[in-house]
Design goal:
nine-stranded mixed β-sheet; alpha/beta; about 325 residues; about 15% strand; about 35% helix
Length: about 325
C-alpha cells in the first residue's frame, strides 16, 4: 500500500486579535487559564536518589493518557490541563508528569532535565505499565513532545502503548536554536534562559554545583547555558553541539512503530524547516504530519472558543480516526 500520512489540516485561523505568530504564541501562554482540573499527586522515587512528581486524574478507567509538558512548563499549564479535562470526561485516566524541578518543589540532585532526558519519561512509563491499564496514549508539547518521540524511537515499547501525539516539537534542536537566535525571536530565548539561570543559581545556594557559576550568570543564549551547565552536568556529551546532535528527536522518528501525530504550525517562531519531517511522513506507516499555516508555538487558538484550542480537536480526531482504527485497518485521512 502507499502511505501518505500528511494530514490536511482543518485549522483555519486564530481570532482576529492574534495578528501574528508572536501573539498566537504569547497570549495563550500568558493569559489562558483552565478551571476544574483537580490532580492527585504521586511522588515517584528514582534510582539515582531524585524524584518526579506525577499528577493524576484517576477515574478507574482502563485507558490512560500520559502528558509531557514543555520547557519550564508543568502539569498546571493550560495546554496540559485542557486535554486532561477533556479526556478525563471521556473515559480516560490522566497522568501529567512534571520534569525534575518543575513541580513547584526543587529536585535533589545538581541536574535538572533536558530534551533528551528520556530516562525520566521511561521511569514514568515503567511506573504506569505496572498498573492495570489496557491502552496507553502519550501526549507531548514542545520539549515534552521531543522527549516522547525519542523515547518511542529508541526502544521497543510495550504493546499497551497504542499511539502518541506531539505538538510544536523542535525535532531538530540545532536548527531551532538558529531560529531562536534571529532578532525577532530572541525574546523567547532570553525568557527561557533567564528562568533556567535563576533555577541553577537558586539551587547552587543549597548544594555544590559542579559548574562555573560565573559562566552561568553571563550566559545569554541556550548555547552558552548548555555549554556552561548541561554538558558539565551530563558528562556523556562532549560539548553543546554534541548534545544537540545526540538528543534531537528527528533522528528517532523513523524507528517509531506506533501511530504518531506531529502537529507543527508553519509559522511557529521556534521551529526550523528541518522540524517538519515531510519526506518521512510521506513514506511512513506511522508518522502523521499536520502543518497548519497558522497557530504559533503551542497556540492554535480557535475563534469564539473559550474552553479548548484546535489541539484538543486534533487529539480527538487522531484518537478516533487513526489510533483506534490502526490496529484493524489503517484509515489514512487527508
Amino acid at each position: 500500500s502507499i502511505f501518505m500520512p500528511i494530514i490536511t489540516t482543518k485549522y483555519k485561523s486564530p481570532p482576529l486579535y492574534l495578528i501574528n505568530h508572536h501573539l498566537e504564541t504569547i497570549v495563550p501562554s500568558f493569559f489562558y487559564k483552565v478551571n476544574g482540573v483537580e490532580y492527585e499527586r504521586e511522588r515517584l522515587e528514582l534510582d539515582d536518589g531524585d524524584f518526579l512528581d506525577l499528577d493524576w486524574i484517576k477515574n478507574g478507567h482502563k485507558r490512560l493518557i500520559v502528558i509531557s509538558h514543555g520547557l519550564e512548563g508543568d502539569s498546571r499549564r493550560h495546554y496540559v490541563m485542557r486535554p486532561a479535562k477533556l479526556f478525563s470526561s471521556k473515559g480516560w485516566d490522566i497522568v501529567a508528569w512534571n520534569n525534575r524541578s518543575c513541580s513547584g518543589v526543587m529536585n535533589r540532585l545538581p541536574r535538572f532535565y533536558h530534551h533528551g532526558a528520556t530516562e525520566d519519561l521511561a521511569a514514568v512509563m515503567d511506573r504506569v505499565l505496572t498498573l492495570d491499564y489496557k491502552e496507553i496514549v502519550l501526549m507531548g508539547f514542545s520539549m515534552g513532545g521531543a522527549m516522547q518521540q525519542k523515547y518511542l524511537g529508541e526502544r521497543t515499547v510495550d504493546k499497551k502503548i497504542i499511539g502518541a501525539m506531539s505538538f510544536s516539537v523542535p525535532c531538530h534542536l540545532l536548527d531551532s536554536l538558529d531560529e531562536l537566535s534571529r532578532p525577532n525571536n530572541r525574546f523567547y530565548q532570553r525568557r527561557f534562559v533567564s528562568k533556567l539561570k535563576k533555577k541553577i543559581l537558586k539551587k547552587s545556594k543549597v548544594m555544590d554545583m559542579p559548574v562555573d557559576l560565573s559562566k552561568i550568570q553571563q550566559a545569554k543564549t541556550f548555547r552558552e547555558l548548555d555549554s556552561a551547565f548541561t554538558v558539565k552536568i551530563h558528562t556523556e556529551f562532549a560539548d553543546a553541539d554534541d548534545f544537540y546532535d545526540k538528543v534531537s528527536s528527528g533522528q528517532f522518528l523513523p524507528n517509531i512503530k506506533v501511530p504518531l501525530l506531529v502537529l507543527n504550525s508553519l509559522n511557529d517562531p521556534m521551529l526550523s524547516d528541518r522540524c517538519y519531517p515531510i519526506d518521512l511522513a510521506r513514506k511512513s506507516e506511522y508518522i502523521y504530519l499536520e502543518m497548519p499555516r497558522l497557530g504559533g508555538h503551542v497556540g492554535f487558538t480557535l475563534p469564539n472558543e473559550k474552553e479548548y484550542s484546535y489541539m484538543e480537536y486534533a487529539q480527538e480526531r487522531f484518537l478516533e480516526e487513526v489510533i483506534f482504527r490502526s490496529s484493524q485497518n489503517p484509515v489514512l485521512y487527508r
